Structure formats: C-alpha cells, structure tokens
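Reading a protein record of the kind used here takes only a little practice. Each token is a code from a learned vocabulary of local backbone shapes. With that in mind, consider the following protein and its fold in token form:
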Amino acid sequence: MAPLEFDPVLLTGHDHIDAQHRELFSRVSQLLDASRERRSREEVVRMLEFLGVYVVHHFAAEETLMETSGYDRIESHRLEHRSFVRELEVLRLELKSEGPTNRFVIRVGNRVTTWLREHIYRTDRMIGEWLRERPG
C-alpha cells in the first residue's frame, strides 16, 4: 500500500485549516504504519485515540470558522463531521477488541483515508471558497 500523503489539490486556501488537514494525513499515515508493522495493540490504540481527539479539535475549529463567517452550508457539513466521528468510534471499538488486524488496516486505509480525501475535496474546499468571497 502506498504511503498516505497530503495532496495539494486538497488545499482550501485557509492556512490554519490546511495545516490541520496536513496533520490529519500525517497522523492517519502513522496509524497505518504502526498497524502494518504490528506494533503493540496499546500503541496503536493510543494513536487512534489521539487521532480521534485531534479530529474533534479540528472539526470544532472548522465549525467555529463556519459559524463566524455565516457559512450557509454549516448544518450539512456538521452532519458529515458527526458521521466521521462515529466511524472512528467503530474503529476504536474494533481495535480494542481485536487488535490491529489486517481488517483494521484495510478499513483505516480505505474508509478513513477515502472519507478524508472526499470530505476535504468536496466539502472543506467550499469553506475556502466561501471565505475568499467574504470581505475582510
């Protein structure tokens, strides 16, 4: 499986959000590496839990930005965030019960990375466009 890297096509044009997206990709990549290398369950669990906390922090930052700018698609965006948080919770429970199995690696590699790419490309870039259209 190819390493997970942030693609510049995902840039939103908002430096803070883009930096957080890069960090998300880095953390998911580290989680995948730790799982593939069969590191201890405890280490992989810690990494997934950190990712979960970071995602919540990132989503809160995005939602605050949307609120303060009067973003008109905030509710559908929030629903996408909630869906991803639920997906991470399912993965967390699976990891705790089964460990970093091949299935876990595949789910993170496919579902999580696909969701991140799609969400950033389709949804988060719209925030950047919205902000560029706003004065000041």
